[in-house]
Amino acid sequence: MRLVAFEGDDGPRIGVVSEDKVIDVAQVDPAAPRDIGAAIREERLAEIEALAQRAPAEARLNYNDLTFALPVSDPGKILCLGLNYMDHVSEGPFKRQGYPTIFMRTATSLVANEQPIIRPLNSDTLDYEAELALVIGKRSRHLTAENALDAVAGYTCFNDGSVREYQRHTIQWGMGKNFDKTGPFGPVFVTCDELPAGATGLKIECRLNGDTVQSSNTDMMIFPVVETLVYITEGLTLEPGDVVVMGTPSGVGHARKPPLWMQDGDVVEVEIEGIGVLRNTIQNEAAP
Fold first, then answer.
1. Predicted TM-score (pTM) of this structure
2. Which residue, 29, 48, 124, 166, could crosslink 176 as a Cys pair with Cβ 3.0–4.6 Å?
3. Residue among 180, 183, 162 at smallest CA distance from 92
4. What are the boundaries of each domain within the chain?
């Protein structure tokens, strides 16, 4: 199943993507779930699928007419991997790590599809990072290689927008990774049955103003989904609706000569095979 969150006249709604249409399940049943994360936590995804199967024609909306929302509006934890593609490690000052490099994002850093990424007043060094994100489907601790994928509800696209100057201020990356409205997320949430196990073998790329600046495959991850989840749950309990963002391949702006920073008016797209396209414009932060 392929789901999107969008804004309706009466607030957030969930739609099931069917070709170029989106089935508004709230038109079938006003009591239908209104948030994908909540539907995961309440184990109501099957209910959404059943509602879509009996939707009338008038419940089918045009995909391109929607105002999209975050696929998970209130993730409890957003855990991100750095240095998870070898070609990306090679273009920076770091060496390959023996364990996944984990940092955190905050919910205030997130931004929905087709909404502007805010280029901050304080720095010109706003960079793009195309990434696969997964959403946790059930409470999990001490996962194993055999059951790790059972914890995943589905996958979506992420752009780990990074203010590199602030990221390099200290050895902790959190500041540069958490500027307001710099982390696009979505729009299509794809359940696991629609993709290869662990989302392996998927083409992933980033385009800036139509030019391809990153192109790789999820098979190139140093720490794939299973290994990452096993490691994280050695110490953290993952909850339904938590998000894990799986790192970016080479081609980022800071590694180019000269550096390629995103500017006001630019259009950046992340596309992952089998999932879809996440598209955002860049907008300068308004002066206080």
1. 0.95
2. 166
3. 162
4. 2-65, 78-284
